[in-house]
Amino acid sequence: MNRRVSILMVLVTVSAVRWGAATQAQTSTPPSVQIANGAITATVYLPDAATGFYRGTRFDWAGVIGRLEYRGHTFYAPWFTKTDAAVRDFVNDGVDVTAGVHTAMTGPAEEFSVLGFAEAAPGGAFVKIGVGALRKPDDGSAYSAYRAYEFADAGKRTVTTRADGVDFTSWRTAEAATPTTTPRPCGSSLASRNWSSRTAS
């Protein structure tokens, strides 16, 4: 019999987060859920703007696998000890590995392309799939995965957990200047991802 562990991630948007310049220790207990199917056990970090494991604007916030165990082997353990907004990627001082806030990720991280950055006017919105609708800076610079961007639309995200999987769904709740009370799925027309593992039992 085949069993399936799935994490479905459908597009964007999370709550706004701002990073200070000071070095930060990783959140000691970020929100997470443990899922298993008999052969694989995984810790999946849940998106959270205040206490989530990852809060940068480079990688998808949904489905961050913090640890995966299979047949006595462990995969995806965190590789850094703290974060620092002044670090572009990472540095190793011989004692600590300090990651920049946009690199501080673990597991099979997903980094999707941006949509609409070139077309957006300064101050206008563009989409970073898996992160949210972000505001284009007015300094004329090109897009950089290592830069912090302000959120233009925090949208809404739901998380549904079960013993063998987690479903993540995100949608925008507003247009740039026209709020709406009816959520509209951003949906699979832009991106969707399904993580699954099939094993025989």
Q: Can you walk through the features of this model?
A:
- The strands form four sheets. Strands 1, 14, 15, 16 and 17 form a five-stranded mixed beta sheet that branches. Strands 2-7-9-8 form a four-stranded mixed beta sheet, with no helix packed on it.
- It is mainly beta and 201 residues long.
- The termini are close together.
- The chain is globular and about 50 Å long.
- The chain has no helices and 17 strands.
- It has one domain (2-16, 23-196).
Write the layout of secondary structure elements.
Blueprint: E1 2-10, E2 23-25, E3 32-36, E4 40-45, E5 64-70, E6 73-75, E7 82-84, E8 90-92, E9 97-99, E10 114-115, E11 125-128, E12 132-135, E13 151-153, E14 156-162, E15 165-174, E16 179-185, E17 192-200
Parallel strand pairs: 1-15, 7-9
Antiparallel strand pairs: 1-17, 2-7, 3-4, 4-5, 5-6, 8-9, 10-11, 11-12, 12-13, 14-15, 15-16
Keyphrases for this structure?
17 strands; 0% helix; disordered C terminus; mainly beta; disordered N terminus; 201 residues
What is this structure, in a nutshell?
The protein has no helices and 17 strands.
Q: Please tell me what the overall shape is.
A: globular
The low-pLDDT segments are: 1-24, 175-201
Helix content, binned percent: under 10%
Number of strands: 17
